[in-house]
Design brief:
Oligomer: single chain
Number of helices: 3
Order of helices and strands: HHH
Distance between the termini: 200 Å
Shape: rod-shaped
Radius of gyration: 65 Å
Helix content: over 70%
Strand content: under 5%
Amino acid sequence: MEAEQFSAIAAVVDWVLLLVLLGWLVTKHVPPVLAARKERIELSLKDAQEAKSQGEKFLADQRALVANQEQETKRIIDDAKNLAVQLEQDAKVQTQKEIADLEKKIQSSIDTERQLAITQLRGAAARASLKLTEELLPSLMTADVRVQLLTQFMEQLDEVADEQGPKISAGHLESIH
């Protein structure tokens, strides 16, 4: 029994020594492993938090960029609408100006054609009058009519020439034939 007791005590001592040895090994080697693991986990969490922050910042920047693009798009559309209205008004003004210029040109052309027609009509009337006068005048011209016409002509010349030179009497012209 003693041997059994001794063996039981030896077994308990072996177990205690084994537990102490295991405890010492665990306390010596496990804390650095756990500390390294804790450090890796904290670093991963820190990186994840940083990535999350960067992602949120990127998202906020993208939202701001989209908002700015929407405002810029709205401004461009408004500018385009304003430009279209201005171009339409300018086109109307230009068209009205061109119509007015065209009306003036047409009126000027009409006036020119009218004057040309009047001039041609006067020319035709003058030619007809001269032809008629050439045909009728010789038969109507008598010596008394000739003297009377020359006298009237000389009187008219005297009125005009009072300021310019000497007078010619009616009797002097009768001798010029």
